[in-house]
Amino acid sequence: MATQQRYTGLIERYRSRLPVSASTRLISLCEGNTPLIRLENIPRLIGKDVDIYVKFEGLNPTGSFKDRGMTMAVTKAVEEGSQAIICASTGNTSASAAAYAVRAGIKAFVLIPEGKIALGKLAQTLMYGAQIIQINGNFDAGMNIVKQIADHAPVAIVNSINPFRLQGQKTAAFEIIDELGGAPDYHCLPVGNAGNISAYWMGYTEYAQDLPGLPAVTDRRPIMCGYQAAGAAPFVAGKMIDHPETVATAIRIGHPQSWDLAWKAQQESGGWFDSQTDQQILAAQKMLSQYEGVFCEPASAASLAGALQDIGSGKIPEGSRIVCTLTGNGIKDPDIAISQCKDAHPVTIEANLEAVKKAILDSM
Ligand code: F0G
């Protein structure tokens, strides 16, 4: 019988492209290797000849793409002897940091904006047992404090300003190329702190340089399209903003840390930044759920919302192959999901066959 090698995580899979040695203890939860799902119903619905794939990062161990960066960041923190890690977070980074800290046997401190993180993310972080520090301020304020704390306390920062985070996250681009046999024409993703768009660009660039038999480097990389929420869109404004607001709390960020790297990705790829209203983001989230069976969190849907707008206007032409990253799982934010389905009308009936039969026949 043929034996298949067990998948043990992205560091093992892409070891030669990551900064680890043979003796490095890998802190992993088998992250990565997420599905690239080809949309079947939405292209038909919009009447456009486009090939859209979604990279469903919500299926990582803690339900977001953060696990890709966290396996690397925590592996390196442990290798360097850290006993504790810290991050500021809109929710997903904190959940991921908390889980990988448990795995490593070290302590995690997370700074989160009070009342502004999705319920599922809070539940996860509590369950993993991280020390939660709620601040009376937004993500940007938390980030500002975390950047100074390393000089005052023995903790390793695991936000995406930690270069190992981007190293881990770049592997998503490798997986896409491995699966499609080449880069897509367009890569769309939500932009908050801007680490992820920078990491993808790094991944596409690195892989393109040594894939044999393909055309010149510049032709082998996608055009990068970064989408922000309209109330939290510093890249669209061209400057930092002080009071970001959006229903997509994951990307409620006005002072992105990877500012220069993200502009580099946009410029080198010939791409663009644009914004979507909260309404457009929520509509795309619902559309993905109700037409494709893919449930992502609101922030993630900014990628599809943006892609659909640019396909509609012709900015992304027909015939294109497009990948949208769905950064987090919809289950993380049950409040928004339920409030989006107020017209769903669940029925409550007696617990007997007759009543159930009637309920079914009534709604056929
Ligand atoms: N989508 C989700 C679901 C996120 O959680 C984030 C960032 C982003 C998109 C944006 O990615 O920051 O690399 O541009 N969440 C961070 C956090 C800030 O703390 O969980 P980015």
UniProtKB/TrEMBL annotation:
The lineage of its organism: Bacteria, Pseudomonadati, Pseudomonadota, Gammaproteobacteria, Methylococcales. Catalyzes the gamma-elimination of phosphate from L-phosphohomoserine and the beta-addition of water to produce L-threonine. This is Threonine synthase. It comes from Methylomonas rivi. It catalyses: O-acetyl-L-serine + hydrogen sulfide = L-cysteine + acetate; O-phospho-L-homoserine + H2O = L-threonine + phosphate. InterPro entries: Cys_Synth/Cystath_Beta-Synth, Ser/Thr_deHydtase_PyrdxlP-BS, Thr_synthase-like, Thr_Synthase_bac/arc, TrpB-like_PALP, TrpB-like_PALP_sf. Its cofactor is pyridoxal 5'-phosphate. SUPFAM superfamilies: Tryptophan synthase beta subunit-like PLP-dependent enzymes. Keywords: Amino-acid biosynthesis, Lyase, Pyridoxal phosphate, Threonine biosynthesis. It is an enzyme of class 4 (lyase). Pfam families: PALP. The keyword Kinase does not apply. One of its GO terms (molecular function) is threonine synthase activity. Residues 27-328 form the Tryptophan synthase beta chain-like PALP domain. Pathway: Amino-acid biosynthesis; L-threonine biosynthesis; L-threonine from L-aspartate: step 5/5; Amino-acid biosynthesis; L-cysteine biosynthesis; L-cysteine from L-serine: step 2/2. Its EC number is 4.2.3.1. Belongs to the threonine synthase family.
